[in-house]
Structures are given as C-alpha cells and as structure tokens.
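Last lecture ended with a question: if I hand you only a sequence, what can you say about the shape of the protein? Today we answer it with a concrete record. The protein is Transcriptional regulator. Below, first the input exactly as provided, then the predicted structure, then a couple of comments.
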Amino acid sequence: MAQRTVLLVLFDGVQSLDVTGPLEVFSGAEAQVPGTYRLRTATLDGGPVRTSSGLTLVPDTSLADEAVPHTLLVPGGQGTRAPDPRLTDWLREHGPHSERLVSVCTGAILLAEAGLLDGHRVTTHWAYCAKLARDHPSVEVDPDPIYVRDGQVSTSAGVTSGIDLALALVEEDLGRDTALTIARHLVVFLRRPGNQAQFSAQLAAQTARREPLRDVQHWITEHPADDLGVEALAARAGLSPRHFARAFRAETGTTPGRYVDQVRLEHARRLLEDTTGGIEQISRTSGYGTPEAMRRAFLKALGTSPAEYRRRFRPAATPDRRTSAP
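The predicted structure:
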C-alpha cells in the first residue's frame, strides 16, 4: 500500500482542535499500520503560528517546500475571517492536484475563497453556513450534517466533527477495525454518521418566548411516547390547534410535527447508543409505536436503520452506561 501524505495547513488564528483532532486520528492510524500516512504541517513561510486560543504551533515546513499531498487538510478558526491572500492563492494553485481536499469547521471558507468548492455539496460550522452560501452561490451549502463527502471534497462542521471525518477517511483507507481501534483509544464512538445533525432538537429550534409554548417544548422532550399531536399539544398550551400551530412555528422556527419528529429521533438515538434495550422496546419508549415506524424514520433522517446505527455508534466492546432503556 502506497504511503499517503496528509498535509495540514496552518495559519495565524487557526483553531487548535481543528488541527490536533484529525492529526491524532491519522497518527493513530500510522501507529497501527506503519508506513500508511506521512503527516506534515506547513505554513506559508515555515514559521510558527499562534492559534485562536493562544497556543503556538511550529510547523514542519513551508507550503512552498511541500510536494502535492494525497490529502490536503484545511482547518478553521478566527484566521479564516480575513484570510491571507497568499494562502488563498496557494490553495487555488495546489488544491486541485490533491486526491482529497478536506476542511474542518470554517476551513471550508478558505477552500471556497480559492474556488475549490464550486459545484460541490459542503457543510461548515452552523454559525457560518449562511455566510458561506451567501458569499459563494455556486457552492451548495448543507447546514445540517456534521460532515459531507462529495467526490474529491470532504467538509465538516465544528471541531469534534473533524475527528469523525478523519475516522471516516481512515476507515475508507484501512478498514473498520483500524478505525475502531483509534476511536476506542481516543474514547470516541466509531463513528457518527456524516448525516447526523449538528444540533440536538432542543438546540436546533428556538426556545419559545411565551411560557405556555415553552412548557410544551419541555413536555415534548420529557414525554416522547405520549400523544403529541397538534390537538393534544394545543390543549396543553390552552390554545386552539390552529393558533397553537401558527404560534409554535413563529416562535420556534419549526412546526410542532417536525419538532416532535426531531425529539423522538434524538431520544431513540440516545437509547440505541447508551442502552441495551431491544429495538421494539426503544420504538415504544421513543413514541414510534412499532419497530417499522422507527425504521422508516431513521432511514428518512439518517439514511440507515436503527440496528445499523447501533452497530456503528455503539461498538460491542464499549461498556454500557445504562443497562436497559428506561
């Protein structure tokens, strides 16, 4: 197997975890299968840079002295807000020659500025998705997934999703067993599916201003198996169904039905990850009623079945945090 060079681009204001997270994954893979990866860090001039948290990183070399890598990884951070034009020019010239272009967090902005994301479906940190889409209309920005792989280009959301994406790349290169060993060593799950949402349902939706609607939101979260139809929720809020549905959407940014769907999906995911409860039991506890209904919901939202989700997200060797579903 040919050795793959992974080059991480460093710059002032880089987010340190965007660098060290993927670096730990690839270095773990190199330790498991020596000769697999050649890891390099580089800056424009070969000099040290200061991260957004104040750490100083000393690179291996300058970008000018590095050959075209197999995998070019661009992290994010405050330094992407006003990028050095010389860095953008370097990416524009050299990026297309790498077999894989990878970004973590707002590193996608640098790739977009270099014209390397045109025509691709991508993601970035949720706070910058709208800006990326507005500034680069030829880029298809998906604000929901934790990472997106589209041909040569792979982009990820916040800092921890860079680890998830790196694990996915290692699994592609070296197989699941190697990636699983690395994930266990780093005490992370192998692996969050790329289309898993960046937010939990409670974070994705706004919190309602009015207390009755806010109370209903809490009720939904705490009672996913109850009757959560619009009429039942409206009665709990003391409003007519029509008024409730309109007010809920206006104050939370989503419909009652979609919010319920998100809460139930999140509840089921958590039970699959954290418990040994059976699929039928979890489907009832999460409000789906039947395993088939839960299966359809998982396929629609995550592109995978509940059983496959559990297999990926909760390795058999991972100790239980609870022994059964509540």
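Comments.
1. The radius of gyration is 22 Å.
2. The longest strand covers residues 37-43.
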